[in-house]
Amino acid sequence: MPMESPLHGAAELCRLDAAELSAAYRSRTLSPVEVANAAMDRAEAVNGDLNAFTFIDRSGAIEAAIASERRWRDGTPLSEVDGVPTTLKDIVWVNGWSVRYGSTTTPATPYREDAPSVARLRAAGAVFVAQTTTPEFGWKAITDSALFGITRNPWNSSKTPGGSSGGAAVAAAVGAGVFHLGTDGGGSIRIPASFTGIVGHKPTFGRVAAFPSSPFGTVAHIGPMARSAADAAAMLGAMSGRDLKDWAQGVGRLPPLDGDDPVVLKGKRIGYWSEPPYGSVDPQVAAVVDGAVARLAEAGAIVEPVSLPGGDLLDLFHHHWFTGAAARVAAIPEADRERLDRGLIEVARAGAAYTSVQLVQAQIRRGEFGAAMDRMLAEFDFLVSPGTALPAFDAGLEVPAGGGFGRWTEWAGFSFPINLSQQPACVVPCGFTSEGLPVGFQIVGGRGEDARVLSAAAALEAIFSVQASKCA
Protein backbone atom coordinates (compact mmCIF):
# COMPACT_ATOMS: atom_id res chain seq x y z
CA MET A 1 0.00 0.00 0.00
CA PRO A 2 1.25 3.52 -0.71
CA MET A 3 2.07 5.80 2.18
CA GLU A 4 -0.75 7.91 3.51
CA SER A 5 -0.10 11.40 2.20
CA PRO A 6 -2.01 14.67 2.40
CA LEU A 7 -2.29 16.77 -0.70
CA HIS A 8 0.92 18.58 -1.56
CA GLY A 9 1.30 21.06 -4.36
CA ALA A 10 4.11 20.44 -6.82
CA ALA A 11 5.70 23.77 -5.93
CA GLU A 12 5.75 22.87 -2.23
CA LEU A 13 7.31 19.46 -2.91
CA CYS A 14 10.01 20.98 -5.10
CA ARG A 15 11.11 23.33 -2.30
CA LEU A 16 11.66 20.64 0.34
CA ASP A 17 15.21 19.77 1.33
CA ALA A 18 16.70 16.36 2.06
CA ALA A 19 16.15 16.54 5.81
CA GLU A 20 12.52 17.57 5.37
CA LEU A 21 11.95 14.75 2.91
CA SER A 22 13.47 12.07 5.14
CA ALA A 23 11.37 13.28 8.08
CA ALA A 24 8.24 13.16 5.92
CA TYR A 25 9.10 9.71 4.61
CA ARG A 26 9.65 8.45 8.14
CA SER A 27 6.33 9.86 9.34
CA ARG A 28 4.62 8.61 6.17
CA THR A 29 3.24 12.04 5.34
CA LEU A 30 5.04 11.95 2.00
CA SER A 31 5.94 9.21 -0.43
CA PRO A 32 9.18 9.04 -2.44
CA VAL A 33 6.96 8.24 -5.43
CA GLU A 34 5.01 11.46 -5.02
CA VAL A 35 8.23 13.46 -4.66
CA ALA A 36 9.94 11.81 -7.65
CA ASN A 37 6.93 12.52 -9.83
CA ALA A 38 6.90 16.16 -8.73
CA ALA A 39 10.60 16.53 -9.56
CA MET A 40 10.15 14.99 -13.01
CA ASP A 41 7.02 17.03 -13.70
CA ARG A 42 9.02 20.13 -12.86
CA ALA A 43 11.86 19.05 -15.16
CA GLU A 44 9.46 18.48 -18.02
CA ALA A 45 7.71 21.80 -17.41
CA VAL A 46 10.89 23.88 -17.69
CA ASN A 47 12.89 21.91 -20.22
CA GLY A 48 11.31 23.44 -23.28
CA ASP A 49 12.51 26.89 -22.22
CA LEU A 50 15.74 26.07 -20.36
CA ASN A 51 17.01 22.86 -22.00
CA ALA A 52 18.65 21.50 -18.85
CA PHE A 53 17.86 17.81 -19.26
CA THR A 54 18.96 15.27 -21.83
CA PHE A 55 16.81 12.47 -20.46
CA ILE A 56 14.08 12.09 -17.82
CA ASP A 57 13.94 8.52 -16.54
CA ARG A 58 10.30 8.27 -15.55
CA SER A 59 10.14 4.46 -15.40
CA GLY A 60 13.48 3.94 -13.67
CA ALA A 61 12.81 6.67 -11.12
CA ILE A 62 9.38 5.36 -10.20
CA GLU A 63 10.71 1.84 -9.78
CA ALA A 64 13.43 3.14 -7.45
CA ALA A 65 10.97 5.36 -5.58
CA ILE A 66 8.57 2.45 -4.99
CA ALA A 67 11.42 0.44 -3.51
CA SER A 68 12.38 3.41 -1.33
CA GLU A 69 8.80 3.81 -0.15
CA ARG A 70 8.76 0.15 0.85
CA ARG A 71 11.96 0.54 2.85
CA TRP A 72 10.70 3.59 4.71
CA ARG A 73 7.42 1.82 5.43
CA ASP A 74 9.33 -1.16 6.86
CA GLY A 75 11.68 1.06 8.87
CA THR A 76 14.74 -0.05 6.88
CA PRO A 77 15.87 2.94 4.79
CA LEU A 78 19.28 2.56 3.20
CA SER A 79 20.32 5.97 4.56
CA GLU A 80 18.89 9.29 5.62
CA VAL A 81 18.81 10.33 1.94
CA ASP A 82 16.89 7.27 0.75
CA GLY A 83 14.28 8.45 -1.74
CA VAL A 84 15.80 11.88 -2.40
CA PRO A 85 15.35 12.85 -6.09
CA THR A 86 18.72 13.25 -7.79
CA THR A 87 20.03 14.30 -11.20
CA LEU A 88 23.27 13.14 -12.81
CA LYS A 89 25.40 15.04 -15.29
CA ASP A 90 25.82 13.63 -18.79
CA ILE A 91 29.49 12.95 -18.09
CA VAL A 92 29.37 10.20 -15.43
CA TRP A 93 28.58 6.57 -16.13
CA VAL A 94 25.13 5.36 -15.09
CA ASN A 95 24.09 1.74 -15.40
CA GLY A 96 21.31 1.54 -17.98
CA TRP A 97 21.66 5.11 -19.24
CA SER A 98 23.22 6.39 -22.41
CA VAL A 99 26.01 8.82 -21.47
CA ARG A 100 26.97 11.01 -24.40
CA TYR A 101 29.31 13.60 -22.84
CA GLY A 102 27.31 16.17 -24.80
CA SER A 103 28.93 14.94 -28.03
CA THR A 104 27.69 13.71 -31.38
CA THR A 105 30.87 11.58 -31.57
CA THR A 106 29.83 9.23 -28.76
CA PRO A 107 27.58 6.14 -29.08
CA ALA A 108 24.07 6.05 -27.67
CA THR A 109 24.61 2.56 -26.23
CA PRO A 110 23.57 2.37 -22.56
CA TYR A 111 26.36 1.82 -20.03
CA ARG A 112 26.44 -1.31 -17.89
CA GLU A 113 28.30 0.14 -14.94
CA ASP A 114 27.89 2.99 -12.48
CA ALA A 115 30.69 5.45 -11.82
CA PRO A 116 31.79 5.17 -8.16
CA SER A 117 30.00 8.39 -7.19
CA VAL A 118 26.80 7.16 -8.84
CA ALA A 119 27.11 3.72 -7.26
CA ARG A 120 27.42 5.26 -3.79
CA LEU A 121 24.38 7.46 -4.33
CA ARG A 122 22.42 4.46 -5.59
CA ALA A 123 23.52 2.43 -2.55
CA ALA A 124 22.23 5.25 -0.33
CA GLY A 125 18.81 5.01 -2.00
CA ALA A 126 18.94 8.21 -4.07
CA VAL A 127 16.31 8.20 -6.83
CA PHE A 128 17.80 9.13 -10.21
CA VAL A 129 15.20 11.24 -11.99
CA ALA A 130 17.07 12.82 -14.90
CA GLN A 131 20.32 13.42 -16.72
CA THR A 132 21.57 17.00 -17.09
CA THR A 133 23.28 18.80 -19.94
CA THR A 134 26.97 19.57 -20.39
CA PRO A 135 29.04 21.10 -23.19
CA GLU A 136 31.03 18.64 -25.26
CA PHE A 137 33.26 16.62 -22.89
CA GLY A 138 32.81 19.37 -20.28
CA TRP A 139 35.56 21.44 -21.89
CA LYS A 140 34.19 24.96 -21.24
CA ALA A 141 32.42 27.02 -18.60
CA ILE A 142 29.14 27.49 -20.45
CA THR A 143 26.63 24.80 -21.42
CA ASP A 144 25.80 24.20 -25.05
CA SER A 145 26.52 21.40 -27.49
CA ALA A 146 25.76 20.32 -31.03
CA LEU A 147 23.98 17.27 -29.61
CA PHE A 148 21.63 18.91 -27.10
CA GLY A 149 21.64 22.63 -27.92
CA ILE A 150 21.88 25.65 -25.61
CA THR A 151 21.04 25.48 -21.90
CA ARG A 152 19.62 28.70 -20.47
CA ASN A 153 19.55 30.52 -17.16
CA PRO A 154 16.27 30.38 -15.19
CA TRP A 155 16.73 33.99 -14.01
CA ASN A 156 16.87 35.25 -17.60
CA SER A 157 16.60 32.75 -20.43
CA SER A 158 18.69 34.93 -22.73
CA LYS A 159 21.66 34.35 -20.37
CA THR A 160 23.91 31.35 -19.84
CA PRO A 161 23.73 29.33 -16.61
CA GLY A 162 27.49 28.80 -16.92
CA GLY A 163 29.06 25.40 -17.18
CA SER A 164 30.08 22.82 -17.63
CA SER A 165 27.56 21.65 -15.00
CA GLY A 166 25.01 24.13 -16.31
CA GLY A 167 22.16 21.66 -16.60
CA ALA A 168 22.70 20.51 -13.02
CA ALA A 169 22.65 24.11 -11.78
CA VAL A 170 19.39 24.83 -13.58
CA ALA A 171 17.86 21.64 -12.21
CA ALA A 172 18.75 22.72 -8.67
CA ALA A 173 17.57 26.28 -9.14
CA VAL A 174 14.14 25.31 -10.47
CA GLY A 175 13.50 22.52 -7.96
CA ALA A 176 13.74 19.55 -10.32
CA GLY A 177 15.33 17.36 -7.67
CA VAL A 178 17.27 17.97 -4.47
CA PHE A 179 20.71 16.48 -5.21
CA HIS A 180 22.57 17.26 -8.43
CA LEU A 181 25.88 15.68 -9.37
CA GLY A 182 28.35 18.02 -11.05
CA THR A 183 31.97 17.90 -12.13
CA ASP A 184 34.51 20.69 -11.76
CA GLY A 185 37.82 20.84 -13.64
CA GLY A 186 38.21 24.62 -13.71
CA GLY A 187 35.06 25.93 -12.05
CA SER A 188 32.36 23.76 -13.64
CA ILE A 189 30.41 23.38 -10.39
CA ARG A 190 31.10 26.80 -8.87
CA ILE A 191 30.63 28.97 -11.97
CA PRO A 192 27.08 27.75 -12.71
CA ALA A 193 26.28 27.86 -9.00
CA SER A 194 27.28 31.51 -9.01
CA PHE A 195 25.34 32.30 -12.20
CA THR A 196 22.12 30.59 -11.05
CA GLY A 197 22.01 31.38 -7.33
CA ILE A 198 22.53 27.90 -5.91
CA VAL A 199 25.17 26.16 -3.77
CA GLY A 200 27.99 24.31 -5.49
CA HIS A 201 30.84 22.54 -3.70
CA LYS A 202 34.10 21.41 -5.27
CA PRO A 203 35.46 18.89 -2.77
CA THR A 204 39.04 18.28 -1.80
CA PHE A 205 40.58 16.24 -4.60
CA GLY A 206 40.20 12.55 -3.74
CA ARG A 207 37.15 13.02 -1.52
CA VAL A 208 34.95 11.57 -4.28
CA ALA A 209 36.31 8.74 -6.41
CA ALA A 210 36.43 9.23 -10.18
CA PHE A 211 36.26 6.45 -12.75
CA PRO A 212 37.03 6.37 -15.58
CA SER A 213 39.89 8.80 -15.13
CA SER A 214 39.35 12.23 -16.62
CA PRO A 215 41.66 13.21 -19.50
CA PHE A 216 41.93 16.52 -17.65
CA GLY A 217 43.74 14.66 -14.87
CA THR A 218 43.97 15.77 -11.28
CA VAL A 219 42.38 19.18 -11.76
CA ALA A 220 39.03 17.39 -12.30
CA HIS A 221 36.74 16.94 -9.29
CA ILE A 222 33.24 15.48 -8.73
CA GLY A 223 30.92 17.19 -6.28
CA PRO A 224 27.42 18.17 -5.16
CA MET A 225 25.13 20.97 -6.30
CA ALA A 226 21.99 21.87 -4.37
CA ARG A 227 19.85 24.73 -3.09
CA SER A 228 21.48 24.76 0.37
CA ALA A 229 24.79 24.00 2.00
CA ALA A 230 23.07 21.40 4.18
CA ASP A 231 21.86 19.50 1.12
CA ALA A 232 25.29 19.77 -0.51
CA ALA A 233 26.84 18.33 2.66
CA ALA A 234 24.32 15.48 2.78
CA MET A 235 24.97 14.62 -0.86
CA LEU A 236 28.73 14.79 -0.43
CA GLY A 237 28.48 12.42 2.52
CA ALA A 238 26.55 9.93 0.42
CA MET A 239 28.89 10.01 -2.59
CA SER A 240 32.28 10.16 -0.87
CA GLY A 241 34.68 7.34 -0.12
CA ARG A 242 37.53 5.21 -1.37
CA ASP A 243 37.19 3.21 -4.56
CA LEU A 244 40.00 1.01 -5.81
CA LYS A 245 39.24 1.91 -9.43
CA ASP A 246 40.59 5.41 -8.79
CA TRP A 247 44.35 5.24 -8.19
CA ALA A 248 44.69 9.04 -8.26
CA GLN A 249 42.39 9.22 -5.26
CA GLY A 250 45.21 7.96 -3.05
CA VAL A 251 44.51 6.00 0.10
CA GLY A 252 41.51 8.16 0.93
CA ARG A 253 42.61 9.17 4.44
CA LEU A 254 40.84 12.51 4.61
CA PRO A 255 39.22 14.02 7.70
CA PRO A 256 35.65 12.76 8.20
CA LEU A 257 32.70 14.77 6.98
CA ASP A 258 30.74 14.59 10.23
CA GLY A 259 31.32 15.15 13.91
CA ASP A 260 32.55 18.75 13.90
CA ASP A 261 30.69 21.54 15.71
CA PRO A 262 29.06 24.16 13.47
CA VAL A 263 31.50 26.82 12.35
CA VAL A 264 31.17 30.17 14.10
CA LEU A 265 32.67 32.91 11.95
CA LYS A 266 33.33 35.27 14.84
CA GLY A 267 37.07 35.45 15.43
CA LYS A 268 37.96 33.50 12.33
CA ARG A 269 40.85 34.87 10.28
CA ILE A 270 39.64 35.19 6.71
CA GLY A 271 41.64 36.24 3.66
CA TYR A 272 39.70 38.26 1.08
CA TRP A 273 40.95 37.41 -2.42
CA SER A 274 39.37 40.17 -4.49
CA GLU A 275 41.40 40.26 -7.71
CA PRO A 276 41.46 37.38 -10.24
CA PRO A 277 44.75 36.35 -11.90
CA TYR A 278 43.51 37.72 -15.23
CA GLY A 279 41.09 40.54 -16.05
CA SER A 280 39.06 42.55 -13.58
CA VAL A 281 35.87 42.21 -11.55
CA ASP A 282 32.58 43.57 -12.86
CA PRO A 283 31.70 46.66 -10.75
CA GLN A 284 28.30 45.30 -9.74
CA VAL A 285 29.76 41.96 -8.70
CA ALA A 286 32.50 43.77 -6.75
CA ALA A 287 29.95 45.92 -4.94
CA VAL A 288 27.76 42.96 -3.94
CA VAL A 289 30.70 40.86 -2.77
CA ASP A 290 32.31 43.78 -0.92
CA GLY A 291 29.01 44.19 0.89
CA ALA A 292 28.96 40.50 1.75
CA VAL A 293 32.51 40.70 3.10
CA ALA A 294 31.46 43.66 5.24
CA ARG A 295 28.74 41.44 6.71
CA LEU A 296 31.44 38.93 7.68
CA ALA A 297 33.35 41.64 9.49
CA GLU A 298 30.14 42.73 11.24
CA ALA A 299 29.72 39.10 12.37
CA GLY A 300 33.11 39.28 14.04
CA ALA A 301 35.38 37.71 11.44
CA ILE A 302 38.87 39.15 11.03
CA VAL A 303 39.08 39.92 7.29
CA GLU A 304 42.39 40.74 5.61
CA PRO A 305 43.12 41.33 1.91
CA VAL A 306 45.22 38.62 0.22
CA SER A 307 46.67 37.82 -3.18
CA LEU A 308 47.33 34.31 -4.43
CA PRO A 309 50.91 33.11 -4.82
CA GLY A 310 52.15 31.39 -7.95
CA GLY A 311 52.97 33.77 -10.79
CA ASP A 312 51.09 33.35 -14.09
CA LEU A 313 48.30 31.03 -12.99
CA LEU A 314 46.38 31.34 -16.26
CA ASP A 315 49.36 30.03 -18.22
CA LEU A 316 49.86 27.30 -15.63
CA PHE A 317 46.25 26.18 -15.89
CA HIS A 318 46.37 26.23 -19.70
CA HIS A 319 49.27 23.78 -19.66
CA HIS A 320 47.10 21.33 -17.71
CA TRP A 321 43.69 21.98 -19.26
CA PHE A 322 44.72 22.33 -22.88
CA THR A 323 46.87 19.19 -22.83
CA GLY A 324 43.90 17.37 -21.32
CA ALA A 325 41.76 18.59 -24.20
CA ALA A 326 44.41 17.35 -26.63
CA ALA A 327 44.30 13.91 -25.01
CA ARG A 328 40.51 13.86 -25.16
CA VAL A 329 40.41 14.79 -28.85
CA ALA A 330 43.19 12.32 -29.72
CA ALA A 331 40.99 9.49 -28.42
CA ILE A 332 38.26 10.33 -30.97
CA PRO A 333 38.48 8.71 -34.42
CA GLU A 334 39.96 11.22 -36.82
CA ALA A 335 36.97 11.00 -39.16
CA ASP A 336 34.68 12.15 -36.34
CA ARG A 337 36.72 15.11 -35.14
CA GLU A 338 35.29 17.52 -37.69
CA ARG A 339 32.00 17.33 -35.76
CA LEU A 340 33.57 18.56 -32.53
CA ASP A 341 33.01 22.00 -31.00
CA ARG A 342 35.45 24.34 -32.82
CA GLY A 343 36.62 25.81 -29.55
CA LEU A 344 37.49 22.36 -28.22
CA ILE A 345 39.53 21.68 -31.36
CA GLU A 346 41.35 25.00 -30.92
CA VAL A 347 42.35 24.40 -27.30
CA ALA A 348 43.32 20.80 -28.14
CA ARG A 349 45.67 22.10 -30.83
CA ALA A 350 47.16 24.54 -28.35
CA GLY A 351 47.62 21.69 -25.86
CA ALA A 352 49.24 19.44 -28.44
CA ALA A 353 51.78 22.19 -29.16
CA TYR A 354 53.19 22.06 -25.62
CA THR A 355 56.34 19.97 -25.35
CA SER A 356 56.80 17.20 -22.80
CA VAL A 357 59.42 19.33 -21.07
CA GLN A 358 56.99 22.25 -20.80
CA LEU A 359 54.34 19.99 -19.32
CA VAL A 360 56.71 18.59 -16.70
CA GLN A 361 57.84 22.10 -15.87
CA ALA A 362 54.19 23.08 -15.45
CA GLN A 363 53.64 20.15 -13.11
CA ILE A 364 56.57 21.33 -10.98
CA ARG A 365 55.18 24.88 -10.94
CA ARG A 366 51.82 23.49 -9.92
CA GLY A 367 53.38 21.66 -7.01
CA GLU A 368 55.02 24.85 -5.85
CA PHE A 369 51.74 26.75 -6.11
CA GLY A 370 49.82 24.02 -4.30
CA ALA A 371 52.31 24.00 -1.44
CA ALA A 372 52.10 27.79 -1.18
CA MET A 373 48.29 27.53 -1.02
CA ASP A 374 48.53 24.89 1.71
CA ARG A 375 50.74 27.28 3.69
CA MET A 376 48.27 30.13 3.16
CA LEU A 377 45.35 27.98 4.34
CA ALA A 378 47.38 27.00 7.41
CA GLU A 379 47.67 30.71 8.22
CA PHE A 380 44.04 31.63 7.49
CA ASP A 381 40.88 29.80 8.52
CA PHE A 382 39.34 30.46 5.11
CA LEU A 383 39.77 32.44 1.93
CA VAL A 384 36.76 34.16 0.38
CA SER A 385 36.24 35.68 -3.06
CA PRO A 386 33.59 36.39 -5.67
CA GLY A 387 32.21 33.19 -7.13
CA THR A 388 32.83 34.66 -10.57
CA ALA A 389 34.29 37.96 -11.75
CA LEU A 390 31.16 38.77 -13.77
CA PRO A 391 27.45 37.92 -13.81
CA ALA A 392 25.81 35.61 -16.33
CA PHE A 393 26.17 36.83 -19.92
CA ASP A 394 24.43 35.97 -23.18
CA ALA A 395 23.73 32.29 -23.77
CA GLY A 396 25.58 30.52 -26.55
CA LEU A 397 28.81 32.50 -26.16
CA GLU A 398 32.04 31.15 -24.66
CA VAL A 399 33.02 34.67 -23.56
CA PRO A 400 30.89 37.80 -23.06
CA ALA A 401 30.61 40.01 -26.11
CA GLY A 402 32.91 43.04 -25.98
CA GLY A 403 34.75 41.84 -22.88
CA GLY A 404 38.08 41.39 -24.58
CA PHE A 405 38.39 37.74 -23.58
CA GLY A 406 39.61 35.02 -25.92
CA ARG A 407 38.77 31.87 -23.94
CA TRP A 408 36.49 31.04 -21.00
CA THR A 409 39.50 30.56 -18.73
CA GLU A 410 40.22 34.28 -18.91
CA TRP A 411 37.00 35.22 -17.07
CA ALA A 412 37.07 32.19 -14.72
CA GLY A 413 40.01 33.32 -12.61
CA PHE A 414 38.32 32.83 -9.23
CA SER A 415 37.77 29.17 -10.05
CA PHE A 416 40.60 27.40 -11.83
CA PRO A 417 43.39 28.23 -9.32
CA ILE A 418 41.59 26.15 -6.69
CA ASN A 419 41.49 23.20 -9.09
CA LEU A 420 45.25 23.46 -9.42
CA SER A 421 45.68 23.49 -5.62
CA GLN A 422 42.86 20.99 -4.89
CA GLN A 423 41.36 22.71 -1.83
CA PRO A 424 37.63 22.44 -1.10
CA ALA A 425 35.67 25.47 -2.29
CA CYS A 426 31.97 26.23 -1.98
CA VAL A 427 29.89 28.93 -3.67
CA VAL A 428 26.72 30.33 -2.07
CA PRO A 429 24.49 33.17 -3.32
CA CYS A 430 25.11 36.55 -1.71
CA GLY A 431 22.96 38.98 -3.71
CA PHE A 432 21.87 40.20 -7.13
CA THR A 433 22.88 42.66 -9.79
CA SER A 434 20.57 45.52 -10.76
CA GLU A 435 19.37 43.28 -13.62
CA GLY A 436 18.28 40.62 -11.13
CA LEU A 437 21.09 38.15 -11.87
CA PRO A 438 22.55 36.19 -8.94
CA VAL A 439 26.01 36.91 -7.54
CA GLY A 440 27.97 34.10 -5.91
CA PHE A 441 30.37 34.14 -2.97
CA GLN A 442 33.17 31.56 -2.72
CA ILE A 443 34.70 30.19 0.48
CA VAL A 444 37.86 28.06 0.37
CA GLY A 445 39.39 25.94 3.11
CA GLY A 446 42.43 23.75 3.65
CA ARG A 447 42.67 20.40 1.92
CA GLY A 448 40.49 17.84 3.65
CA GLU A 449 38.40 20.48 5.44
CA ASP A 450 35.22 19.99 3.42
CA ALA A 451 33.08 19.72 6.54
CA ARG A 452 34.37 23.06 7.87
CA VAL A 453 33.90 24.75 4.48
CA LEU A 454 30.33 23.48 4.15
CA SER A 455 29.55 24.45 7.74
CA ALA A 456 30.95 27.92 7.08
CA ALA A 457 28.88 28.07 3.89
CA ALA A 458 25.77 27.36 5.97
CA ALA A 459 26.76 30.19 8.32
CA LEU A 460 27.18 32.48 5.33
CA GLU A 461 23.71 31.55 4.09
CA ALA A 462 22.29 32.70 7.42
CA ILE A 463 24.28 35.95 7.31
CA PHE A 464 23.44 36.81 3.70
CA SER A 465 19.77 35.71 3.88
CA VAL A 466 19.53 35.45 0.09
CA GLN A 467 16.73 33.27 -1.25
CA ALA A 468 17.82 32.68 -4.81
CA SER A 469 15.74 29.62 -5.67
CA LYS A 470 13.58 29.64 -8.80
CA CYS A 471 11.40 26.74 -7.64
CA ALA A 472 7.82 26.82 -8.97
Characterise this structure.
This protein has 472 residues and is an alpha/beta fold. The chain has helices at residues 10-15, 18-27, 32-50, 58-74, 116-123, 166-174, 190-196, 229-239, 283-298, 313-330, 342-352, 356-379, 416-421, 450-464; strands at 53-56, 85-89, 127-132, 144-145, 149-150, 179-184, 199-202, 221-226, 269-273, 302-306, 382-386, 425-432, 438-444. A hairpin with a 5-residue loop joins strand 12 and strand 13 (438-444). The two termini are 29 Å apart.
SSE inventory with pairings:
Layout: H1 10-15, H2 18-27, H3 32-50, E1 53-56, H4 58-74, E2 85-89, H5 116-123, E3 127-132, E4 144-145, E5 149-150, H6 166-174, E6 179-184, H7 190-196, E7 199-202, E8 221-226, H8 229-239, E9 269-273, H9 283-298, E10 302-306, H10 313-330, H11 342-352, H12 356-379, E11 382-386, H13 416-421, E12 425-432, E13 438-444, H14 450-464
Parallel strand pairs: 2-3, 2-6, 9-10, 9-11
Antiparallel strand pairs: 1-3, 4-5, 6-8, 7-8, 7-12, 11-13, 12-13
CATH fold label of the largest domain? Amidase signature (AS) enzymes
Strand order of the largest sheet: 1-3-2-6-8-7-12-13-11-9-10
Q: Assembly type of the shown chains?
A: single chain
**N- to C-terminal distance:** 29 Å
Under the CATH scheme, the architecture of the largest domain is Alpha-Beta Complex
Mean pLDDT: 95
What characteristics describe this protein?
alpha/beta, Amidase signature (AS) enzymes, two-stranded antiparallel ribbon, disordered N terminus, 472 residues, globular, eleven-stranded mixed beta sheet
Could you give a quick summary of the protein structure above?
The protein has 14 helices and 13 strands.
